[in-house]
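FAQ: What does a ligand-bound record look like?

Like this one, built around beta-D-glucopyranose:
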Amino acid sequence: MAKHDMHGNKSRALAAFFAALILTTNASAQDRQIEQKVDALLKQMTLEEKVGQLHQLSGRDLTGPANNRNTNILAEIRKGKIGSMLNVRGVAETREVQAAALQSRLKIPLLFSLDVIHGYKTIFPIPLAEAASWDLPAIEQSAQVAAKEAAASGIHWTFAPMVDISRDPRWGRVMEGAGEDTYLGSQIARARVLGFQGKKLGGTDAVMATAKHFAAYGAAIAGRDYNAVDMSEHQLWEIYLPPFKAAVDAGVATFMNSFNTLNGIPATGSAYLQRDILKGVWKYQGFIVSDWASIAEMVKHGYAADISDAAQKAINAGSDMDMEGFAYSSSLVQLVKSGKVKTALLDDAVRRILYKKFELGLFDDPYRFSDAKREQDALNDPSHRLIARDVARKSLVLLKNDKQTLPLNKAVKSIAVIGPLANARRDLEGGWIVKSDAAQVVSLLDGIRSHVAKDTEVIFSPGCDVACTTTDGFAAAMAAADKADTVLLVLGESWDMSGEAKSRTDLGLPGLQTQLFEAVRLKGKPVTVVIMAGRPLVFNTVADQATAVLYTWFAGSEGGNAIADVLFGDYNPSGKLPMTFPRSVGQIPISYDTYETGRPVQDVKNVVYKSAYIDTPNTPRYAFGHGLSYTDFSYSNLSFSHKNMQPGSTVTVSFDLRNTGKRDGEEVVQLYLRDPVASIVRPVKQLKGFHKIKLVAGEQKRVSFTIDQAMLSFYDSKLTWIAEPGKFIIMLGSASDDIRLSGELQLLDKQK
Ligand code: BGC
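The answer part, i.e. the structure of the complex:
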């Protein structure tokens, strides 16, 4: 990779833009045909019509009873002043609204977009939960089903996946991402893009995907949503950008920029991010949509004097479409007429959007995604629930299992099911839902009832609601625990405590939930705690004192069945944490790929002046990659194909993985790497590979990883991507804090 300048400026960004215009690409015949059609259409368009293509509006019930807003929007559409709608959905409505676009002079179809984040009608586990499965085919399939349901309902485009890395669970939007790790996040970004988009854009069972939010949104200062981001270029390139690059490589159709400033410049107005990196270095051909009103918000940031200034800055910086900001629709015509914005820049943005409309086949048939029969079939396909159940059980993480309390015996005489989330339905759906029906969600209580033997007594007592502000229900909960042989206590957040604008400073279990746990535990029965949440929570008392802890996130429509599958052993848990779980909010931001200091805590135990807290260990409560199984796996016989690696060549690392327990199970084998001496200090370990491997009880397999030069490379102080010759430590294990095997490798200086 070439060197990157530290600071983009406007003139260089524009120069790069004009250079890109004359770049001849290896376009296929079909690409060229589309390009010709786009050019021909562009020639017929007035300035106003061009600007219209860049204007995206939100509208619900546009075809319902007329009111000012919907009458105006439909009128604007008929004038060709809107290029895309968000939140219009369903065959009937998308057809009616598209019909308005076809009454416009040039009959350019609208793009219908929507936040289909973890399901359309069938709700899948929240994205952070799915990331815990480390199961790429399952994640791809979940996106595929969501796309199929949405596409059959007239939707062309989803605002997903969110590929923001975050090391801060105070930030409520960690629920929408893949966690803290760049490598895992990049693999999942790719799987989700492939799942949403299918083989090729234009299939009516797929939608365009969006890589969002470009960029560094997950590093908001203090975990407060929309807050400023200030980070080194090195961190940006090494940690935050790779999942976006992975999305580009997977062919993602669109990007969304972000609300935050990055080192003082709103991402929406950043030519460095959008023109230099995305459209320049990465040669991205899709289009960029702003986040909701983020162009107009540049005025509030103090980066633009007024809305016209904001529009000028955003289009120059490479933001192609304005979502709900009314900056382009109000100012761009004038900006182009006055010469403040070059026609070529406007044309480039319009071209990128029209290209996607052609690629989707909308000019051939603007209604091709809105098919009543397909909508009916897709939304009632029973296989979707089975797929949701499968990915949900793969997403659950067993954090603790003392005395092999789990799996529970289905023939247990009586079981107390306690806690505010035990019978929850809406909460299991998590933050982003579209057309689901909470009544159709399988609660954990439902799941338990359908798993236990006929004569098992299930005693339900909520104890309190999620906010848990009173102990009024505790006595009944304790009585239930007293009567039962075993206790399941279901605690956690409500669905609306994580997500957008849901930052928290206290990550403990809400209200008096911990006291409910303590009260129930007094009865002396084994207590299995099931935690539902959209983020890592801090729950030390429960972690110390519960007999078993299962972290279930928000597991979706089939959540109750999936959790019961794990609790009763129909599925052996295989999930691993995609984010570090801190002991205390004071440790945040926290991640496993930390740097060594000059005063490492382990080297100077009895010394005061070391890099440590005086009140909490440095280690997390549960490390990245942690997750237990009902069986055990052993790692042995590590071998390297060679110990000296020639530049540009590869080395194969292999070892034996054995299921040493009595149950079949899956292990996520994790490969970490450390470059112990480098021109800039490298992290103590970084994930560079993983395999999810299924072994029946007693089975052994030889597992291999191929190490190539890219895995040894990093951005040096000049942001050059290099692998420095010398020693590398390769670590293999079951979690970032559970390394089972390690060995060394030498990268040679030059061909010897
Ligand atoms: C969010 C985006 C979302 C958009 C449209 C914004 O507030 O940040 O992620 O796609 O709204 O709903």
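Follow-up question: can I read anything off the structure? Yes, for example: The longest strand covers residues 665-674.
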